[in-house]
């Protein structure tokens, strides 16, 4: 005869009780949509990311209005330039695709959501690395910082609300912060991808930005084996003045996310990356997984682990579902 005194199932009895006992919620304002903007008038599908496109500026304008209507917190823009060179000149050109798109979208949505920009050279360099190269072919950290400073000024002047520093160079936050402040751009905020891992899950993104990378990023992005180092990188970025820190990818790094969230005094975000998106889309397309439930659960898990906001390619669709659920 067993008669348990403690019955945790009691709080799971009805939908109303389960709703009341729910510890974690996802709200549209905590979602950020990454968007790719290319040159030219046509948008182009990305085969490894069904449902995601490289926008033209015009289609990006329409998408950002839809995003604002869905109530999400912001969009993170990536540029896909036609022409690339050794130093990524397009990144600092006020008429480069990313800066043009930023101006257009800020103009389109005003303050209805934040317009954020990826601050990294890889989409703009012909060699595809996140920094500039020294004569021996290695990444020149400190020469790259100067490029990031110029890029920050160009993006801030284009109207970006939040600069997403994704290059993993040492000292990048302090370098960008001081350049902004020296030019009177104190109000432009800095999001540092502080714990960014050298991950296989960026695979589809490489198609999304037509990456030219040969080789890998293991001399600057973190070793997937290292959790403590992700916390250290985040601590350094906070000390350098990051307004927000981020862990990326999300799903395979929830332990790092939880550790950073437990020590950080600034908001902690997470990036559910292209490969995480592609895996669920692919399994759902096969009928092997319930797409909506898998998407919701994946983002909920990232929130539960400690993310204050989540960059996800499902941001708009998920926000729409969340509204439906509340109605
Ligand atoms: C680099 C950058 C990458 C992603 C965002 N910024 C690619 C990389 O580091 O190789 C990946 C995002 C994704 O996979 O969704 N600027």
From TrEMBL:
The lineage of its organism: Bacteria, Bacillati, Actinomycetota, Actinomycetes, Micrococcales. It comes from Cryobacterium frigoriphilum. 5-aminolevulinate 1 binds at residues 206, 217. It catalyses: 2 5-aminolevulinate = porphobilinogen + 2 H2O + H(+). Pathway: Porphyrin-containing compound metabolism; protoporphyrin-IX biosynthesis; coproporphyrinogen-III from 5-aminolevulinate: step 1/4. One of its GO terms (molecular function) is zinc ion binding. Homooctamer. Its EC number is 4.2.1.24. This is Delta-aminolevulinic acid dehydratase.
